[in-house]
Design brief:
single chain; mainly alpha; Rossmann fold; 2 domains; 5 strands
Length: about 625
């Protein structure tokens, strides 16, 4: 009985310490729960899960949180001492962020060195940029698209967001300190911050070109800082130290209603938007940031019931590990994904990737981050916990180290790593595919045409002279098959071509007299496009009798967006029909080189055969229709 009372007393003391911590140091446990939501959304996005196409908005959620918490800390320091201790602030940020980053970079470089050494030379420059928190500008100036790059994606591509935050941490304390000294009234500081935030959002809207690669506005500190500043403004008007837990029932209800509405907007945008929607860059991200700020404001308030929900221990623990989870999840996903996968998602593989990310993040937190961040303060905590029962005590340091070594070894060397090896032969083949001349195939490709069975005995009135094909690099290699089977066909294909370029290509072909009665369009491999752009393309083909669209298979986030847009628009055009290459290539990894896009000999033959069969089938249907109409007239 005494032991039970003692245990209850210890629990009461722990809860009391947490309340004291919340009141004295500004700790807001609900915000850790929100961090968990943000990092889970980002993971879902990088895993290409259908239910979270807007999971990239989790980064904006992190930005708003960071802007609020950092500004809140700086303002508290100013009110207590009348100054901002920049050295102390930057040192604390360095202790918090750098150790885990360095360990992750070392782990990734070792992994790549052992499993994919051919990628090491290119990766070292990205690692250097990550160390100095300039990853976003490195990617911009080297024109590395977050959305549209081919070849093996970089396992360090996600560090651009940390670079944006660190640049904010570097300059914002200086600007805030200057504003606090020079502007006597807080309203002036708030107004100036709002103006800069609106200017940043406006820059994103003006610089973004619909249907083009959005990476410049997506990466840029200048075009993303508004989310951080929205959080900063919130800290100025809603400081944590002035919140009172004693609210009336109606005020509590209004508080949680506002938070629930903001949370609903956040969840709807994560589940319903995608990175290629024009509206996202023309005010959508700003709207999301404002909704996120509303959620942050409510979760930060000690009287919020919603805050208590987000303070749920497992959710809060994930939030406390969110930095490490963010660091590790993307390298794990990139380095362990299959090189080519046409069979759909593997649930067990996905769960393993998530579990590995969380485990490595926990190890990073307990063995690296907290010892460096807190130092001797943790020793006092250990002395206090020595009075707890054994099952409530934390693991000994030696046990943690041993357990960590075993887990890291298992994760890096024992578990499947089929995604880490890149065949140099496949890469060479891929280069041949993408760089082939428009009118000539390689000897291997020409051989593929004769090696694969062809239904040359089928009779049809399909004539090559009546067909024009507009496409990208996929059609460059399929061209020999089509030229052999349909002599006289006009094929206009170019590496990297996108849908927004199609109207100009069509206009040129019309002027040259090369636009046939049947026009086939194969675009979408290199990036997304809007319904408006596709509609404009089809409207420019009014004089054609038939339009054939081909959907895409590409292991990039825009795949589903492209295919859905093609499906929707095709349904509204009587002259247009869709050929389903995505389904035809399902479970055929042998059709693709290691980039999962460009076609092997077998893939070239299958693609060409699919297209010819579709043309023959359509012509047969037309012939039957004409025959039936003639009979009816007779």
């Amino acid at each position: 009985m005494n032991d039970s009372k003692r245990t209850n007393q210890l629990h009461w003391q722990a809860n009391r310490q947490q309340r004291v911590r919340a009141n004295s140091s500004g700790y807001m446990p609900g915000l850790d729960g929100l961090r968990a939501l943000a990092v889970l959304a980002v993971i879902a996005y990088h895993l290409n899960l259908d239910w979270a196409p807007g999971g990239l908005l989790g980064v904006s959620l992190f930005f708003v949180l960071s802007g609020y918490l950092i500004t809140n800390i700086l303002l508290r320091q100013w009110e207590h001492s009348g100054t901002i201790d920049l050295k102390d602030f930057w040192l604390r940020r360095a202790r918090r962020l750098l150790p885990a980053l360095f360990v992750m970079l070392a782990g990734v470089m070792i992994w790549v060195m052992l499993c994919a050494p051919e990628r090491l030379a290119a990766l070292k420059w990205e690692a250097l940029a990550a160390v100095f928190y300039t990853s976003n500008w490195y990617l911009i100036f080297h024109q590395v698209s977050y959305f549209e790059s081919f070849g093996p994606p970089s396992p360090l591509g996600h560090l651009w967001s940390l670079a944006v935050e660190e640049q904010f941490y570097l300059f914002w304390p200086l600007l805030l300190g200057w504003g606090l000294r020079c502007l006597r009234q807080r309203k002036g500081l708030i107004g100036g911050t709002v103006a800069v935030a609106l200017a940043s959002a406006a820059a994103m809207a003006l610089m973004y070109i619909p249907g083009h690669d959005p990476s410049r506005v997506y990466y840029g500190t200048d075009t993303r800082v508004f989310a951080l500043l929205v959080g900063a403004v919130l800290a100025m008007v809603w400081p944590s130290q002035k919140m009172n837990a004693d609210l009336s029932g109606k005020k509590k209800l209004a508080l949680d209603a506002a938070g629930s509405l903001g949370l609903l907007v956040v969840l709807l945008m994560i589940s319903q938007t995608n990175q290629y929607q024009t509206s996202l860059y023309q005010g959508g991200l700003l709207l999301f940031s404002l909704a996120a700020a509303c959620v942050v404001a409510v979760l930060a308030h000690p009287a919020s019931y919603l805050g208590r929900f987000f303070s749920w221990s497992p959710l809060r623990w994930l939030g406390e590990c969110s930095y490490g989870i963010y660091l590790w999840h993307y390298p794990i996903i990139i380095l362990t994904n299959p090189v080519v996968n046409t069979g759909g998602p593997d649930l067990l593989h996905t769960l393993w990737q998530i579990a590995a990310s969380i485990i490595l993040a926990a190890l990073s937190r307990y063995l690296i981050e907290e010892p460096i961040r807190y130092g001797r303060r943790r020793q006092r905590v250990r002395r206090r916990t020595s009075t707890l029962p054994w099952w409530q005590r934390p693991l000994a340091h030696s046990a943690k180290v041993t357990f960590s070594i075993v887990l890291v070894f298992a994760l890096l060397f024992v578990t499947p790593n089929e995604g880490t090896e890149i065949s140099s032969k496949a890469l060479a083949g891929s280069r041949v595919t993408t760089e082939a001349a428009p009118t000539q195939g390689t000897d291997q490709e020409a051989g593929a045409v004769t090696e694969e069975p062809a239904t040359v005995d089928k009779k049809s009135d399909v004539r090559g002279e009546e067909i024009t094909v507009i496409g990208d690099s996929l059609l460059i290699n399929v061209e020999p098959v089509l030229q052999e089977r349909l002599p006289g066909i006009v094929i206009d294909a170019q590496i990297g071509r996108q849908m927004y370029q199609a109207p100009k290509v069509i206009s040129r072909l019309q002027q040259e007299g090369k636009l046939g009665k049947i026009v086939i369009i194969e675009l979408g491999t290199n990036g997304s496009f809007t319904e408006k752009q596709l509609t404009e393309t089809l409207d420019s083909l009014q004089d054609t009798s038939e339009i054939v669209l081909i959907n895409t298979r590409v292991p990039k986030p825009w795949e589903s967006v492209v295919n859905e847009t093609l499906r929707k628009v095709t349904e509204s055009y009587p002259k247009a029909r869709l050929i389903d290459w995505y389904s035809a290539s399902s479970d055929h990894d042998n059709y693709f080189y290691s980039d999962g896009v460009h076609l092997t000999k077998t893939g070239v033959a299958a693609y060409g055969e699919m297209l010819i069969e579709a043309l023959i089938s359509q012509q047969s249907d037309k012939d039957k229709s004409c025959y039936n109409n003639k009979k009816l007239k007779e």
